[in-house]
Specification:
253 residues, mainly alpha, Multidrug-efflux Transporter Regulator, Chain: A, Domain 2, Phenylalanyl-tRNA Synthetase, Chain B, domain 1, 3-stranded antiparallel β-sheet, two-stranded antiparallel sheet, 5 strands, 65% helix, flat
């Protein structure tokens, strides 16, 4: 081995020392899937250059403010060797907005608010819509509490909860289709040319800037389009109802 060159294979003690971590921390990263398992030689686990590089990237992410969960998400999709600005782009792609804080409620409390029985079928429906997540202790986590509150407010207007949930399912489907159209546009016009160029290091800031600028524009486009469509549908429905009443009344004598 030449001076200043890392060995091809390291024990867990050597690996931990090389990146300034404890052996226990390295083991925990392996357990979480943040670090690939070592190659076994007898009963000894041996780590290579890819493990060393992965730990350096992970430390860089944690020092930059990533949580372990966020780092896990990014490392699951980012190509090996990507660091710095590239990791920030992948993080932005995976979590474009700061998510609202989830709320945890007792099942009977939510049932009372909704005015329905939370049987297995109803829970499955709410879970499929991403409105609840059943916790091991039986309580319910609300990942999008503002959306649940909006549904409860609609219900307070006299709209049945079944109708509210059916409408939410329709909206959810259309929202995913609109989101996919926007993502496809970004992929074709920004990401694929960047990828075809070999993902040059100097190109990452431009990709990040394009994504950060396109995101609010896409949201604004969706909002304006929906408002316009809603206004048109309301006007059409009112006109049809008025025409129906006029027809039922018959011609003036």
């Amino acid at each position: 081995m030449s001076t200043g060159t890392a060995p091809e294979e390291l024990t867990i003690d050597q690996l931990a020392a090389a990146v300034g971590l404890t052996v226990r921390t390295v083991r925990s990263y392996t357990t979480r899937g943040l670090l690939p398992p070592p190659r076994l030689r007898g009963r000894t686990g041996l780590y290579g250059r890819e493990h060393l590089a992965r730990l350096h990237v992970l430390r860089e992410m944690l020092d930059a403010g990533y949580t372990l969960s966020a780092a896990e998400q990014v490392l699951a999709v980012a190509p090996s060797g990507v660091s710095g600005p590239g990791l920030d782009v992948y993080r932005a792609l995976l979590n474009p907005w700061q998510e609202e804080d989830a709320e945890v409620v007792e099942a009977d409390v939510l049932a009372a608010r909704m005015g329905v029985d939370l049987d297995a079928g109803r829970l499955a429906q709410l879970t499929d819509l991403g409105l609840v997540r059943v916790l091991p202790d039986g309580r319910l986590e609300l990942p999008r509490p503002s959306l649940v509150r909006a549904g409860l407010q609609l219900s307070s207007l006299g709209i049945g909860m079944d109708d509210v949930l059916q409408t939410q399912a329709v909206l959810d489907g259309h929202a995913k289709a609109m989101a996919q159209a926007c993502v496809d546009l970004f992929r074709r016009t920004v990401w694929e040319p960047f990828e075809a160029a070999g993902q040059p290091e100097e190109g990452w800031p431009a990709v990040r800037d394009a994504f950060q600028r396109a995101l609010p524009l896409a949201s604004q486009s969706v909002l304006v389009t929906f408002r316009q469509a809603l206004a048109e549908q309301i006007a059409r429905t009112v006109a049809e109802a008025a025409a129906g009443r006029a027809g039922a009344a018959g011609p003036n004598p």
